[in-house]
Amino acid sequence: MEIIFWGSTEGVTGSMTFVRLPEGLICVDAGLYQGTEETEALNEKPLPFNPNEINAVILTHAHLDHSGYLPLLIKNGFKGKIFCTRPTAALIKIILEDSAKIPEQHYYDEEHVKETLKHLSIIEWNESKSLFGGSFKLIPAGHILGASSLSLESEGKTIVFSGDLGRKDDPMIKAPLPCPPCDAVIMESTYGHRKRTGDIEKELNSFLMKISRESRIGIIASFAVARGQLLITLINDFFIRHPDEKVRVVFDSPMMGLANEVYEKYSYLTKIPGTIKNALLGQEGIEHQGQWDGLKKKKGPLIIISSSGMLTGGRIGRHLENWQDDKTAILFLTGYQSEGTPGRELLNGHRTIKSTSGKMIHWEGEVLSSDAFSSHADHDELIEWTNELNCESKIFLIHGEKDAKMNLKNDLSSKFSFVHIPSKSEIFNLK
Ligand SMILES: [Zn+2]
User: Is 200-369 a domain of CATH 3.40.50.10070?
Assistant: First the structure.
């Protein structure tokens, strides 16, 4: 098998790796680069193959940095199947349809997304499927609903793609299953240089208590898919366990509403199906202008969960604009904030930011942030995941910033004789 490294060799986005099997060329993940202008320019770079030469895509999970390039493949002539799990198929519909509507995203439109969805082919976890002189199966990887690692076998050799690995103690999603024995691993390294800090329950509880006891307004900035459902579930569960605390909780994001339905439907795959169903079925969402008009003048205690997580789009801007002068309001950033985003500006201590409407606002309230909600395995969990491998397995590190990859390489090198950080276009022949 020949591995052709391409995407996420530079950082954490744009996942895309090619594998040449005896009878076909496949692509593992097809993600968009996201972040700075310079990073996003990589989406314009021609692929090493014409999309009509690619015979199939295998998708590890639905996040845009793993799936967002699919409509562009279709637009440029890809005709094959896109294999993924059932929850991934349901989530990429939401994620790609949203992506096609973002004005800055000029790569494809809704028609291309529609066409992309027709190419999806469902595969169950651990179901072995033949493909172009080889076979593959998807293995639960934690992280988000439907996320998988991939084991690909051909001519007596096996390659494992970790996909994005989840954490062991995720409150909602089951821990990733160990990596099967293999000859080569293409491994993510997002948290390759650090341990996750913070405690989800503690941080959330203290925020919720503050809102409740001090009758404040809480605005939670969250990614619409996965993070949103986690927050809604944990918050709902908190108020069930603390019946004396009474806070109205609403979410304001149509995309979050759609993802709620998928999480509710596939909740049986998670650790806490009953709790999720309970929370997502009863959750109040803002659907009409009238509801929003009614909410605008409200005093605390009130919690609004909205997206986007980095304050770059979505409906969160209207809440920030509305409550910007309220010194007691709390904005809670629950995800990673990329350089150059309004969320990062606030974290850096700036209080004047550009809202999603383009208006400048001055946020007078408190700003809280946490990385406890991350759905990624941290440094120690990544190392632990490789425990099933023998020391002859070759390890290739992608999907991480330079420091993260270097650190992980260093730590894995004591156990494995071959740990490598591939560059874009690099080819490795696994014999
Ligand atoms: Zn991911």
Answer: no
Q: Comparing C-alpha atoms, which of 173, 170, 123, 124 is closest to residue 144? A: 173
- State residue 333's pLDDT score: 97
51-55 contacts: CB < 8 A, separation 24 or more? 51/76, 51/77, 51/78, 52/76, 52/77, 52/78, 52/79, 53/25, 54/18, 54/25, 54/26, 54/27, 54/78, 54/80, 55/24, 55/25, 55/26, 55/80, 55/132
Cβ-based neighbour number of residue 227 at 10 Å: 23
The rounded Å distance from CA 108 to ligand 1 centre is 21
So where are the chain's domains?
A: 2-194+375-429, 200-369
Ligand 1: centre distance to CA 409 (Å): 21
- CA 419–ligand 1 middle distance (angstroms): 23
| Whether domain 2-194+375-429 has CATH 3.40.50.2300 | no
CA of 325 to the centre of ligand 1 (A): 35
Centre of ligand 1 from the C-alpha of residue 330, in Å: 28
> ∠ at Cα 155 (152, 156), nearest 5°?
80
Cα of 241 vs centre of ligand 1, distance in Å, is 31
pLDDT (tens digit, 9 = 90+) per residue, 415-430?
A: 999 999 999 999 999 9
DSSP, residue by residue, 145-178: TT-EEEEEEETTEEEEE--S---TT-SSSPPPPP
- Reported as a pLDDT band with limits 50, 70 and 90, residue 371 is confident
The single-letter DSSP state of residue 268 is: G
**DSSP SS3 for 413:** helix
Alpha carbon of 29 to those of 55, 62, 65, 268, 407: distances in Å?
A: 13, 9, 9, 25, 25
Q: Cα of 374 to ligand 1 centre, how many Å? A: 10
Please count the CA atoms within 13 angstroms of the CA of 100 that sit on its side-chain side: 18
pTM of the predicted structure, to 2 decimals: 0.95
Distance CA 377, CA 269 (A): 19
H helical segments located in 324-367: 342-347
**Interval between CA 163 and ligand 1 midpoint (Å):** 8
Q: For residue 63, how far is its CA from the centre of ligand 1 (angstroms)?
A: 5
